Task: inverse folding
């Protein structure tokens, strides 16, 4: 796989992961919407928990410094396999939604779905710094 494709896919995964925060909700996020407790204090979402990050800002700063998601999880005692599973699940759901809406064909859906895991696995080890 060429490096340009890896970088594009990696960037796409990161953007999808932080869509609600970075783009004010203009795209579907791979991160679930924040949940609110009875004390109105936000809980960390599953993606941040898997990376063992305290906030979106901390994660964005680490990515800005050129760290890959794998680097961040390793340094913070996070669970990179959980990060991969969360991203695969979210991207699969987005593909399913696109198929239901008619924006992609069944053949396109099958082809993209077959590549998701490999692309996500490659992207978590890619740094963009």
Result:
């Amino acid at each position: 796989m060429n490096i340009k494709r890896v970088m594009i896919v990696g960037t796409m995964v990161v953007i999808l992961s932080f869509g609600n925060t970075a783009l004010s909700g203009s795209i579907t996020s791979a991160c679930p919407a924040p949940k609110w407790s009875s004390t109105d204090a936000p809980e960390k979402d599953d993606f941040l928990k898997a990376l063992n990050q305290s906030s979106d800002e901390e994660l964005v700063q680490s990515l800005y410094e050129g760290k890959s998601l794998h680097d961040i999880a390793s340094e913070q005692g996070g669970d990179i396999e959980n990060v991969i599973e969360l991203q695969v699940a979210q991207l699969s759901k987005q593909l399913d939604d696109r198929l239901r809406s008619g924006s992609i064909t069944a053949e396109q859906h099958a082809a993209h779905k077959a590549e998701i895991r490999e692309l996500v696995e490659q992207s978590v080890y890619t740094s963009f710094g």
Summary: The chain has one domain: 3-23+42-124. Residues 1-7, 18-42 have pLDDT under 50 and may be disordered. The CA atoms of residues 5 and 119 lie 9 Å apart. The chain has seven helices and no strands.
